[in-house]
Amino acid sequence: MKGVPMSGLRMSLCSASIVAAGLLVATSAQAQDQEEPQTLFTNVHIFDGVNEQRIENASVLVEGNLIKAISTDAIDAPNATVIDGSGRTLMPGLIDGHAHVMINNDYGVIERDSDITDLSYNAVLVMERFLQDGFTSVRDMGGPAFGLARAVDSGLITGPRLYPSGAFISQTSGHGDFRDRADAGFSVNDASDLSNFERMGIGMVADGVPDALKATRLNLRNGATQIKIMAGGGGSSRFDPIDTTQFSVEETCAIVEATKDWGTYVAAHVFTDRAVHRLLDCGVRTFEHAFFLSEETMQRIAAEGGYVVPQMWGISPDLAKNPLMPPAKIPLVQELGKQYADFGRNLLKNNVKVVFASDYVGVNADAERARRYEIWWRTQTFDSNFEVLKQMTSIAGEMLALAGPRNPYKEGKLGVIEEGAYADIILVDGNPLEDITVIGGNTAWFDADPEWTPIDTIDVIMKDGIIYKDTLE
Q1: What does the pLDDT look like over 38-80, one tens digit per residue?
Q2: Rounded CA separation 460/331 (Å)
Q3: Assessment of whether the complete model's pTM goes beyond 0.85
Q4: How many CB atoms are closer than 10 A to CB 191?
Q5: In this structure, are residues 372 and 344 in contact, taking their beta carbons and an 8 Å threshold?
């Protein structure tokens, strides 16, 4: 640096810094100006997830992972990859509001002959088939699915967006207490009193406010997008009658307040009026199953902005064939199914927001057949393909957004075809508003072929702007 005065050196360094900063700004601006990949769907009839009438002869432009434009006029996108729909129905990717992707075998096998690796490897297949059936988002309502969600988001495995609840939280003797009769013991001081379900994070048994808070906060720490509690008995558990109310007012309200502190909400497995009113008093937002409600209770749920998330196969004549159902409970469940046959119609009559649920659980073949049967059976119990399609798209998307700051997908809406929404799209050969079988609906459940096969009428599946299936090529 001989011959350069110190003042000149300082000026040279300063100028170099300014130039370098300018280059960085210019490079950043060029990166922002660079167009993201585009896909243009042409010649499609759009079911937008909200309106019963399709938008005929339209085009949809996807840019990056969002929907950029929708028009019945030609869209100018010279650099886009074009997919000619040839009159097919373009609609939102489907949403399952209640599934258990990690409870993917018979309960007895899980309890006595599985570890977390068995369930995890099988869950990869479960997720792939969900997506191949057109489901681009799934709310997991109990199980150790946190790592699975991370694996999907990182691109390590293929599957839908996953909203994990973590271990469902249950009282002792509740619907999440899956100990065998010999395991339960006769003393509350038996420290080794754990089921395999609890060891693997499928469920947690918590009694009293302090333990209920610990269980809730542990799930939130691990990445839960919402909290799931067991607030009543159930059909698939052996020791809790279906009519019971579970968790005290104090326990329930403590769980809800701890969840609100994280900006999200509580969902509850429940069936009876008494239990639902306790849950509403504490601020629970979604009511899973809930088959045996009076119309007065439905009206309160609607007035307070709640959602009911029922798997309607729970009141179907085929339920008696379910291998997970304890034989002693079959007569009761069958009788209740007859008594509450108008449950779906009453929900609609009382303006309750309803979300699709397959309650995917158990052996893959049984659960996959149940999901396709559920799509068809709902059209019989709600008397409308349109209502069922809304439950699988826009209404389910609204419910997922209740997770607020815990929602990992905040760039756009889910469950709708509109500008700015996520590009979660399926292209269907046929009109599901008239024929629900074109999105996989099946009139048979346990009588259906147990081997999973792709749905031939779903030709294109896009999630987050990426195409995972295209049979039009």
Answers
A1: 999 999 999 999 999 999 999 999 999 999 999 999 999 999 9
A2: 43
A3: yes
A4: 7
A5: no
Predicted local confidence at residue 243, as pLDDT: 87
Q: Note the pLDDT tens digit of each residue in 216-236.
A: 999 999 999 999 999 998 766
Rounded-to-integer distance, Cα 340 and Cα 335, Å: 9
Q: Which residue has the tokens 């947690």?
A: 204
Phi-psi region of 271 (alpha: psi -120 to 50; beta: other; left: phi over 0): alpha
Q: Could you give the C-alpha distances from 210 to 65, 198, 213, 249, in angstroms and in order?
A: 43, 18, 5, 14
User: Which among 259, 388, 249, 385 is positioned nearest to 311, based on CA atoms?
Assistant: 388
- Angle in degrees, 0-180, between the axes of helices 146-153 and 116-132, rounded to the nearest 10: 50
State the amino acid at position 466 in one-letter form.
Answer: I
Amino acid at 21: A
Nearest to 396 by CA among 418, 377, 419, 414: 414
Residue 100 near residue 371, CB atoms below 8 Å: no
Q: What is the pLDDT of residues 310-361, one digit of tens each?
A: 999 989 988 887 776 778 877 877 887 788 899 999 999 999 999 999 999 9
Q: State the Cα torsion 277-283-287-288 to the nearest 10°.
A: -120
Distances (CA, A) of 70 to 56, 59, 88, 285: 11, 6, 16, 33
Apex 154 CA angle, 309 and 104, nearest 5:
45
For residues 439 and 432, the answer to whether their CB atoms sit within 8 Å is: yes
What does the buried/exposed string (b/e) look like for 44-81 if buried means 16 or more CB atoms within 10 Å of the residue's CB?
Answer: bbbbbbbeeebbeebbbbbbebbbbbbeeeebebeebe
Q: Which residue is listed with tokens 């609840």?
A: 165
Cβ atoms of residues 95 and 441 within 8 Å:
no
Evaluated on CA atoms 126, 130, 131, 133, the torsion sign reads: positive
